[in-house]
Amino acid sequence: MPRSRGNLRPQSLHGWRPRVADLTLVIGGARSGKSRYAEGLVRRHPGPWHYIATAQAFDTEMADRIAQHRADRGPDWITHEAPLELTDALRGIDEGVVLVDCLTLWLSNHLLAGSDLTAEAAALEAALQDHPCPVTLVSNEVGWGIVPDNALARAFRDAQGRLNQRLAARARHVITTIAGLPLGLKGDLP
Question: Any idea what job this protein has (predicted)?
Answer without folding.
Answer: Catalyzes ATP-dependent phosphorylation of adenosylcobinamide and addition of GMP to adenosylcobinamide phosphate.
